[in-house]
Write a structure and sequence with these properties.
The chain is 27% helix and 29% strand. With 184 residues, the protein is of the alpha+beta class.
Length: 184
Amino acid sequence: MKKLNTLLEEYIPAYEEEILYKSRMLDFINNYDNVFSRKQIFGHFTASSLLLNSDSSKFLLMHHKKLNRWMQLGGHCDEDEDVLAVSIKEAMEESGINEIVHLSDKIFDIDIHTIPSNSKEAEHFHFDIRFLLKTDGNDHFIKNEESNDLKWVLFEGFNPSEYSLENSVIRMIQKHSIPLQRLI
């Protein structure tokens, strides 16, 4: 697997906000230690995905229990620098689907968002690296303890207002309609 800074340098943003995210992520890698660890109090890298079903007609959303909102699957790198592997591992853990493949080694989307302070940690940033993944035949998910619900959502006729999604999740869903060869 390529190092994250190489993946980021090769990444061509499809949206204007991603140009800033890419620059900030490269600065973060070059100017901070332990960027894959929760011990880095300024922030740390996370990995997530847009998970497609086996025929690519749907994507999986998770209603996150702790955050109380619909979102993509993903999580902390926890010192693992292979963000693609983390993305796949998190998708498997959060969906219960063990047959997941990546559609490309290239980054699909990037995002930086603020995590508010709580009883365990101060406010910090998540530098999220996102990949396009797909189930490999089995679309049956199993809800885990981190979610209130999981739902396959059709791309056709998708209405973001039904799910109160963050703009960054909507951006990933919109990217699905861009010819994939441009993105991956």
